[in-house]
Amino acid sequence: MSTKAEQIIEQVRAGRVWRSVFRSGTGQSTLHRALAIQQNIFLHLFATKVRKRMVRFSATWYLGTLTFGTFLILVITGILLMLYYHPSVPQAYADMKDLQFVVSSGLFLRNLHRWSAQLMVFLVFAHMFKVFYRGAYRTPREFNWVIGIVLLLITLLLSYTGYLLPWDQLAYWAITVGSNLSSAVPLVGSKIHFLLLGGNQVNANALLRFYVLHCVILPLAAILFIAIHFWRIRKDGGLYVQQSDPRAQADVESEPDAKEVQ
Amino acid sequence: MSDPKDFVASIDSDQRRSPTRVVFVTRRTSAQVRVTQEDQVQTYPAVLFRAALAIELLAIALVLVSLFLNSPLEGIADPTHTPNPAKAPWYFLGLQELLHYFPPVVAGVLVPTLLIIALVVIPYFNINIEANGLFLKDRTKRLRLFYLAALGMLAFLLVFHVYVAVPPTVIVALAMIVAANSTPDSPSRFRRYLARKPLAYWIMTWFLFELIVLTAVGTWFRGPGWSWVVPWRS
């Protein structure tokens, strides 16, 4: 027995407007549920079915999912923080004080952004080691592992560029210590250092460069590579399952598209 | 993965998953089971629901932490006043600890570059198949190479006074010696586990140990002038 509310929802989902937005129809059948994934530009990154034992917590500890979760939280809180922040000296620091004492829940917003960022770095490392110890980087998943390494570097850069933005002593000297390392690169070290900071030391130009990297360039790169990373899971045969014969893995799994409903 | 026992008998009543079949597996032999069809769940709604639930629980945990734990905010940036010690973000403190022993071109450029290259090439080596334990083939030759590499690494660390990196190296080397003296059908579960581990496993485990130790030392045990401090007495 469906309730009145459920009937109304079903009517809306079957209506012309809904159908014009969502390409898959309504229904509880396996076909409709497969179409709900396949006919959606975002969800079609994923496979329509997942092996039952890979859904269990012990299989992956959901580390990839949770990493993506921290990324979502960071995007949302980051956009809200951008509304209260000017990437200039000394206004940046004044904005931090405003977030702390003037903006409603400003401190909470900054806390959430900062702790999520720290957790994301940790989760990315944890995800990498879990994938390694499961052996999930093996053929045909080599390239998705490489994309994962790219995402690790993007995450570290995101965290590092964000570290400067509060413009307090902690931020300033952490970035000074880190960016001085780039001067140690043979031959082109000082050029790279200058390019990174827009000057010979951390100053207002560096703050602006880090802001642009942190809020535009690196998040866009992250979104692009996350999409490829997810899509490759499906194309490479779904989440890796350990088998008694590792060579059988490739044979079993390299027929992914045939099973999908077209 | 496989957990060899003397004798395993199993009857599965799920006709779809395994047609009536009795399997006897004795030590040193294993029935090769190639699963071509196994139970699957639909991504929509089952998996998406679980993912959403996991992310929501994460969000709740982070909100609680953020309500009670405030982010640090020090005085405004002052280029004329260097704090002692000036520390990088925590995930770079392992490298900063190395910077204490090696010139910047080694700790800041060479080591990270080599690390990234090593991580990228991992899946392109054919040394990772789980069944191939490091010392199961060419044991004498590999053992000799291992001693050479381990002693070389220890000598290197001691020459440069990197004493903090010594314990993880010693622990992993000892585990590798145990592995070299074990076989995949040893009665001890732990030894069976070690004996089957390939080279990549050992390198990665050593890397993980060093990463944790160096980062922890850099974060909690280094004070003014990068001298030793204990976190509970600062």
Descriptive account of the structure:
The complex is a heterodimer of chains A (262) and B (234). By secondary structure, chain A is mostly helical. Chain A has a domain of 181 residues: Cytochrome Bc1 Complex, Chain C (Up-down Bundle). In chain A, helix 8 runs antiparallel to helix 9, helix 9 crosses helix 10 and helix 9 runs antiparallel to helix 12. The longest helix of chain A has 32 residues. Chain A starts with a helix and ends with a helix. Chain B has 234 residues and is mostly helical. Chain B has a domain of 142 residues. Chain B contains 7 helices and 3 strands. Chain B has a two-stranded antiparallel ribbon with strand order 1-2. The two termini of chain B are 46 Å apart. Strand 1 of chain A pairs antiparallel with strand 3 of chain B, so a sheet runs across the interface.
Computed CA radius of gyration of chain B, to the nearest angstrom: 25 Å
The outline of chain B comes out as: flat
Secondary structural class of chain A: mainly alpha
Q: At the fourth CATH level, what is the homologous superfamily of the domain at 57-237 in chain A?
A: Cytochrome Bc1 Complex, Chain C
User: Average pLDDT of chain A, to the nearest integer?
Assistant: 89
- pLDDT averaged over residues of chain B: 85
Percent of residues of chain A in helical segments? over 70%
Distance between the termini of chain A: 32 Å
CATH topology of the domain at 57-237 in chain A: Cytochrome Bc1 Complex, Chain C
The tally of strands of chain A reads 1
